[in-house]
Design brief:
The chain is mainly alpha-helical and 143 residues long. The chain is 43% helix and 6% strand. It folds into two domains: 70 residues; 51 residues, no CATH class. It is built from four helices and two strands, in the order ααβαβα. α3 links the parallel β1 and β2. The protein is elongated and about 80 Å long.
Amino acid sequence: QNLKDIYKTVWEISQKVIIDMSAERGAYICQSQSLNIHITDPNFGKLTSMHFYAWKKGLKTGMYYLRSTSAADAIKFTHDKTAGQQTVTAEANVAAPVMAEAALVGQVQKSIDYEARVADYEQKKSDMACSLDDPDGCEACGS
């Protein structure tokens, strides 16, 4: 147990202590220092609180180097190969009016498939966007 107390992971160390240590050594640094802040579940409240705490301590860089854990289930950007395929089959010996009707059905099918793909795209796009009303529910932010 003693060894675990000495060698903690970055997620086990209080980030407030990291900010305090950074502010204390700031007087001895000629130019500037880069500070990494590690927050497991960042949200608007935590980031604002940390930022203003560091600012009151005299640090100037804010949350430039924020580190967070990755999202639990990342969105997979794969292409569905069957989404663009059209299946209109006609026998070779079908009469011309039937062929014209099949072409019309094919055009309608293309229109329906296009509308479905657009709707699917819009749904996926809205799923990826962060909601300011529910910042804790955003998987992209790592929460």
